[in-house]
Amino acid sequence: MSCSSSSGSSEEDEGFDSYRKGGYHAVRIADTFASGRYIAQRKLGWGQFSTVWLAYDTQSERYVALKIQKSAPEFAQSALHEIEVLSAITNGDPTNSKCVVRLIDHFKHVGPNGQHWCMVLEFLGDNILRLIRYNRYKGLEINKVREICKCVLTGLDYLHRELRLLHTDLKPENILLLSTINSSKDPIKSGTAPILEKPEGVSNGSATMSAIEKRLKQRARRAVATISTKRGGFVSAPKPPRCLDGIDMNCKIVDFGNACWESKKIAEEIQTRQYRAPEVILQSGYSFASDMWSFACTAFELATGEMMFAPKGTQGFSEDEDHLALMMELLGKMPRKIAIGGRRSKDYFDRHGDLKRIRRLKYCALDRLLVDKFKLSNTDARELAEFLSPILDFAPEKRPTAQQCLQHPWLNIKNPDS
Ligand code: ATP
Ligand code: MG
């Protein structure tokens, strides 16, 4: 139960195949939980382990996020672990200033697919991946990148230094804005009244049914798009850039399903592929510095709209090898000692510390890439590269801590253009 894949990363649905015994719990709008305390409003998102719903808390008269775990024993166990971690996080942050999601309540819910652990979390807005997508995969303005980085580093510093906790799955999907991108979707800002009873006429409209309908519609839309491109070679005009002014960039770290205490590591392989640190691939031991690597990959993605490393693993070599090659093309050759120092090093490197199967690397320094490919100004590129490069040191012990990063001048530069 260690590494999550790209769950929820597409805007596809969770798929109704997993709505079975041991799987997700099907929710209908206005379903109640915890003896009527929480009322389901609409689905907010989903992951490999759970679906997450906007719910109305009738006791506090506030909106909350209800994370409903799949029911099979391994998911239940992982929920209990997440509850333990979230409790520590919430108890250690009484002033709510650490940029980490808060746990409000938890309970067990029995449904046709089994017993589901449920976590009641404070309701947050859209995840950062949605923000990148909303911005049409263009890099965010550098000042906005800075604001998000400050929050994420504040959260990491708290987790690492005060709790001795590793997140192990930091990525844009697991960073949530405090409010929604589209304020009409924010139940608080838009002032919509909570749904307290089943909407009339749809008492049978289950979440599963609407998932099927939605998928069919999606397919139809895709088919139409394919036909129109094939027919006329019709190319739509580029869409104008979107304005992000007015969107609050304050955010929090979420998803502690894979988090672990520094003193009690469980999984060998951690992190989602693209955000995985070299020491995790080579199995030379991971720690807080591995979260820092994922942080740097995330910051790069915010500034460019593209993943820093997107290994494919084709042409006779594995995804791991491709990944290591991509890292070296951007960051320079890996020092021999590090390259050959992991339990899996022999699979990829020869005794000189050269990749066995991928020979010709095309080096391109980070600041150059930011200018040439992503069109950052020379100054923005140089400053961002200066901030990120130390965090992308191949030697984990040389990477700055979150606390040290928070002191970096880059976080306090005021860019007059933006
Ligand atoms: P994973 O497969 O990544 O392990 P998961 O099943 O553990 O996922 P989360 O990552 O915690 O689930 O949540 C899935 C999605 O639900 C998030 O990406 C986000 O869109 C939404 N979500 C989660 N928590 C909240 C919250 N507190 N407020 C609003 N939306 C949330
Ligand atoms: Mg997640």
TrEMBL record:
Q: Which domain of life is it from?
A: Eukaryota
Q: Does the keyword Nucleotide-binding apply?
A: yes
Binding residues annotated for ATP, in chain numbering: 67
Q: What class of enzyme is it?
A: transferase
Kindly indicate whether the keyword Oxidoreductase belongs to this entry: no
Gene3D superfamilies linked: Phosphorylase Kinase, domain 1, Transferase(Phosphotransferase) domain 1
Query: What catalytic activity is recorded?
Result: L-seryl-[protein] + ATP = O-phospho-L-seryl-[protein] + ADP + H(+); L-threonyl-[protein] + ATP = O-phospho-L-threonyl-[protein] + ADP + H(+)
EC assignment: the record states 2.7.11.1
Secretion signal: which residues? none
Q: Name one GO molecular function term.
A: ATP binding
Listed PANTHER family: OS09G0552300 PROTEIN (PTHR47634:SF5), PROTEIN KINASE DOMAIN-CONTAINING PROTEIN-RELATED (PTHR47634)
Q: Which family does it belong to?
A: Belongs to the protein kinase superfamily.
Its name, as the record gives it, is: non-specific serine/threonine protein kinase
